[in-house]
């Protein structure tokens, strides 16, 4: 594909590239990010890691974190990234040409995700480098595949499998490719070579896992929680980018999170499985439980599954960045504006190059196999930037081949024109896929409101609730579900006035040009109490096909319509809207739960549908998530006894789930059992102090308790938290002062009283608390 390069030129260029890459990474991102593996290594070395936890982590990467502290490991990863550049060059030079290999190495050297994940203490960068190194050795060893190269390649591929088990798929495919390359040689010798490569790789993968197993007794069948990861990437709510684990698991994880519980979601997945299938379920069988839930989804909703796979494939091939780690997102923002290569741009160039190579019948078998394996694994589980990292070298090679072809055809206008047309079509691909445009639009919305997140956190820490509320209004304008992901204690996040300001800001700064804009405007209008404005916007977004998700909370215009109609008393219309949601994307947790609760509250004509929806709800979703979601939906439909039944069932399995205690408190309030409701509310606040618990459902309970036990410190403490969260700062300040005087020995009350004494109000008009209604009894919590 090109003329030979001058002798001695390649080593010098590679050396410069490697040194420049390491220096660039260490200057831009000198520190290590993400502490899950260092925390887990400390648990392992101190003997505090449980056998079940041992299977949650990459065996080889856990060993590396035991051997090296974060800073040296971060340096090792930068050096590994530089070695990966050499592997990219060797692959390109042996399979295509030296100029292609050099250009591809240069592209990888300045690609943003490569630099980011060298500084991130997750195994993805090493997986990429180990696979690249092995494939480079195999490409170098062609056509005879001497044993020493096969052994080295097998060791590297095995270590990749020990770093993440999906690396074993590359081992199998590489073995198949080598056997195909040797198909004209003696069968016995070829089979022995294949057995050597495969056997070496399997042993290298097995050994680190055995070391961890011998240390903590971990279960090999549950390594890295394959079933749980498969489930969180294949749910009805899935957008195609990132994982959608059950919200209840994420909320419970936030309640328990600590350095003693790194990545505790894996343990919670096992706990939730056992709540339904039995406490004696082994770790391996808990993974099978989640695999069955995923299979049930595929059987119940095959159309939704196919749509999800299509979206994942598009995001993997040419989607925008999707970092699932907060620290990495912040670091990427720090690198914005620098002349680095975006992964999406590299992917689009790579797609153009691959299409051109195939059209011109160039031999790219090994690279395509590697790319296909990386794609299949990410699409089978879920797509995030960490998992897309493996494909970037392949895209760089194809993009470089396209560039070299264009250079060599510079005097052939017809070929150049065809290349230009193909490139233009590929670069325009994201515009043809609405769900890809939605992610890009979300990024644009966030940028349009500035960066108020840091201002919000600082203002809350300093008790400046007026500034915090203004920052929250901007964040909510960009994304109405900000309150699900941030602690907002002291900000009146439920206030219709705040929602109205956010809605006005959203329309003014962000417009109503896209279906996402329409949906967000409709949701904010609904929260502001303006369903007359929300319904047209929601219908327009629904007609345009917008759908999103935050964990298993559906960002669904049809559910905005359902909520508005229910608030207006049109119960039949609300149920019909929920049915429309399920027709568009079947099996989603909140739509199913809403439909079940609605069918229960209507006539017996809906009974057949109710039973069908209820069966599907518990077939696709785990027992605890399904009951919690159904309890929330029953609460909205006014079935307080049913909501209490669901809450009690969840708490019988796991007694300390804070959000379910809150659900129970709201159900008890609806039933007029205020004394029990106050105790449940107090329990929720105690278990998860930073959570944004809704205050509206508990207004009657707090008002009744204050009316009947106004001098009880426990009542005053709960009421203080309640009114602070509702935005009634003056009332909260007064209650806190009274409580601290009645219980001077309570240091927590004294601290809250002092904080509130110095705090500044939000400046948002907040309705006064309602007067207490008639009640049977009220006691202190």
TrEMBL record:
Naming one, the record's GO cellular component terms include: plasma membrane
Per its UniProt entry, which superkingdom is the organism in? Bacteria
Task: From the UniProt entry, list the residue stretches annotated as the region Disordered.
Answer: 758-781
User: Glycosyltransferase RgtA/B/C/D-like domain: which residues?
Assistant: 71-204
Query: Is Ribonucleoprotein a UniProt keyword of this protein?
Result: no
Q: Where are its TM segments located?
A: 12-35, 75-93, 100-119, 125-142, 149-177, 189-209, 364-384, 390-408, 415-436
Among the GO molecular function terms of this UniProt record, one is: pentosyltransferase activity
Which cellular compartments is it found in? Cell membrane
What keywords are assigned to this protein?
Cell membrane, Glycosyltransferase, Membrane, TPR repeat, Transferase, Transmembrane, Transmembrane helix
Q: Where are the TPR repeats?
A: 658-691
Q: Which residues form a coiled coil?
A: none
Write down the PROSITE patterns for this protein, in alphabetical order: TPR
Q: Name one GO biological process term.
A: lipopolysaccharide biosynthetic process
Q: Which SUPFAM superfamilies match?
A: TPR-like
Name the membrane topology term.
Multi-pass membrane protein
Q: What is this protein called in UniProt? A: Dolichyl-phosphate-mannose-protein mannosyltransferase
